[in-house]
Amino acid sequence: MKTHIAMALALAAAAGVPAAARAQAAFEGVVTFNLESGRGPATMQYSIRGRDVRMDMSMGGMEVYTLFNGDTKTMNMVMPMRQMYMEYSAAGMQGMADSAARPKITWTGQKETIAGYACEHATITATDGTTTDVCLAKGLGTFVPAGGGRGGRGRGAMSGGWESAVGDAFPLKVQQGGRVIMEATKIEKKSLDPSLFKIPDGYQKMGMGMGGMGMGRRGGGGGR
After folding, report:
1. What is the tally of structural domains in the chain?
2. Residue 33: what are its φ and ψ, rounded to 5°?
3. What pTM did the predictor assign?
4. pLDDT at residue 217 in the model
5. Mean pLDDT: which of 32-36, 110-114, 159-163 is highest?
6. I need a surface site. Which of 59, 67, 93, 121 has the fewest CB within 10 A?
7. Residue 214 lies in a domain
8. Dihedral (C-alpha) 172, 16, 61, 214: value to the nearest 10 degrees?
9. Which of 166, 164, 168, 136 shows the shortest CA–CA distance to 150?
10. How do residues 116-137 score in pLDDT, each as one tens digit?
11. Does residue 10 sit within a domain?
12. The CATH number of the domain where 107 resides is what?
């Protein structure tokens, strides 16, 4: 069951890769989020260093993290409990995102301060008419979505459909149907160790099947 949860997180992260192709801003540090995953409450630590991003997820006792390399446009979903990781490229996702209809964004003029940062609320309307209220801040870099990004009906913070409309702004609060599904609780500007954005030595590589992500065959591990 835990393996299935981890794979679901990997799929969600992969869907949002194209929005990450833009350069990150100069902010370096960690943003902590509370979010509704669709399977219950979860937390995420979102670490930014240059063009690299690390997303640490905690949900139902399962700890996983996703690494995005802004130079190679690749992502790795890492499962410390199994000492395994799964690698995939954003290249295959880019065409899908480019051809998909973009959600519409409407700025409301309403402003708020969250975790010490000012943000402005925008209403994002997906192609099916689903609306999401997102409070967007500047100066925190381009957001690499934890999930979604392809539009469609909201199903919690893991697949909201609003991510591709935010551009170079950074979401601090996301609401759907009057319910908060994602909110920043702490923003720490600090230097981060480069090793946080690398796969630990000795971890085994997971295979990807054509029909989705599966255990597949294992390849050699090794640090990156």
Report:
1. 1
2. -120, 145
3. 0.75
4. 39
5. 110-114
6. 121
7. no
8. 180
9. 164
10. 999 999 999 988 888 999 999 9
11. yes
12. 2.50.20.10
Per-residue pLDDT, averaged over 199-224, amounts to 59
**Is residue 181, in this structure, part of any structural domain at all?**
yes
CA gyration radius, the chain? 17
Per DSSP, the three-state class of 9 is helix
Q: Which long-range contacts (CB under 8 A, 24 or more apart) does 64-70 make?
A: 64/6, 64/9, 64/10, 66/9, 66/10, 66/13, 66/146, 67/197, 67/198, 67/199, 68/17, 68/20, 68/144, 69/197, 70/20, 70/23, 70/24
Planar angle of CA 152, 154, 160, nearest 5 degrees: 85
Q: Sheet containing 179-189: which strands, arranged edge to edge?
A: 104-114, 117-125, 131-137, 170-176, 179-189, 29-36, 41-49, 52-59, 62-69, 74-79, 84-89, 204-205
Mean pLDDT to the nearest integer, 40-47? 88
Identity of the amino acid at 155: R
CA 113 – CA 53 distance, rounded (Å): 24
Which residues in 189-213 are b (16+ Cβ under 10 Å) and which e? eeebeeeebbbeeebebbebeeeeb
Q: What is the C-alpha end-to-end distance of the chain, expressed in Å?
A: 28
Residues 132-189: tens digit of each pLDDT: 999 999 989 878 875 433 333 334 454 456 777 788 899 999 999 889 999 999 999 9
Tell me which residue range forms the domain holding 59: 2-205
Q: Tell me the CB-side half-sphere exposure of residue 81, using CA atoms within 13 A.
A: 11
Pairing label, strands 204-205, 84-89: parallel
